[in-house]
């Protein structure tokens, strides 16, 4: 069943944060975009920014984590590594991101 709001997403993140770190090396996670602003629609994707431990930061783990989130949350996920965002995009994300 697809998540419906920010609270459900954040609750899922809190519940699984340790697992995300152990399996994928994700040590920082937050949502931004329409879900963070409570403006999501039925077709909205979930914008998620993460940071990963250097030893686990690779394409395989990144894509596996994205697939895991999409399967568990029931929505398309737009996943990005926050530190890799261009400065203009990072400024926009920083204004509205909600971290766990």
Automatic annotation (TrEMBL):
Instruction: Name the coenzymes or cofactors required.
Output: Mg(2+)
- CDD domains per the UniProt record, alphabetical: NT_KNTase_like
Q: Does the keyword Magnesium apply?
A: yes
Alphabetized UniProt keyword annotations = ATP-binding, Magnesium, Metal-binding, Nucleotide-binding, Nucleotidyltransferase, Toxin-antitoxin system, Transferase
- State the source organism's domain of life: Bacteria
The family database entries (SUPFAM superfamilies) matched by this protein are listed as: Nucleotidyltransferase
Please give the family membership noted in the entry: Belongs to the MntA antitoxin family.
This chain's protein is named DNA polymerase III subunit beta
**Lineage of the organism:** Bacteria, Pseudomonadati, Thermodesulfobacteriota, Desulfuromonadia, Desulfuromonadales
